[in-house]
């Protein structure tokens, strides 16, 4: 199945289950601390998968194989996240070439993602849904037109494009993320950066 089709299917599933979780205010729709601890224990470990990314108006996606990611007691860590992939969001045009090249030249970093759980019936039997909340990526001393700047790319959460899916039977963890904005020296840049979507799919078991 092509990636774009997979995303549509996944978003439909997430929307259905998220809407289900919001129906009513009864306590039965809230996960207990024990259920959340059980989920973290079930997910804990190291995974390997393929990372795909594509900008909003992109016609094709780029990818990186054998990406390692770990679940510890509190978060997901994507090891050696390719920061250069964030350059896909820089709008085309020679005026933005220096910014694009600065991001492309940035070294990989570990990307830490805080997580929360959505309610779904039969939680962990066999699956659960996660809210993926990546920390910001910082690129210090980025050289743009001979001057040095600090770049910051923020991610969106609480969104169907920023969700994870853990299958407890297969022990697989799928992650979707999307960027929110680009900041240069703590100032948001408008009109030069578009959304980049990421999908991290586990290797087949």
How would you portray this structure in words?
It is a single chain. This protein is of the alpha+beta class and 205 residues long. It has three helices and eleven strands, in the order H-H-E-E-E-H-E-E-E-E-E-E-E-E. The chain has helices spanning 3-22, 33-43, 97-104, and strands spanning 45-55, 62-71, 75-81, 109-118, 127-134, 137-144, 147-155, 163-167, 172-184, 187-188, 196-202. Strands 1-2-3-4-5-8-9-11 form an eight-stranded antiparallel beta barrel. Strand 9 (172-184) and strand 10 form a beta hairpin. The radius of gyration is 18 Å and the shape is elongated. Mean pLDDT is 86; it is low at 1-27.
Write the layout of secondary structure elements.
Blueprint: H1 3-22, H2 33-43, E1 45-55, E2 62-71, E3 75-81, H3 97-104, E4 109-118, E5 127-134, E6 137-144, E7 147-155, E8 163-167, E9 172-184, E10 187-188, E11 196-202
Keywords:
19% helix, 3 helices, 11 strands, 8-stranded antiparallel barrel, 44% strand, elongated, alpha+beta, 205 residues, disordered N terminus
Give a short overview:
The protein is α+β, with helices and mostly antiparallel strands.
Helix count, DSSP H or I runs of 4 or more residues: 3
Mean pLDDT reading: 86
Strand content: 35-45%
Largest sheet: 8 strands, antiparallel, barrel
Residues in helices, as a percent range: 10-25%
Strand order of the largest sheet: 1-2-3-4-5-8-9-11
Radius of gyration: 18 Å
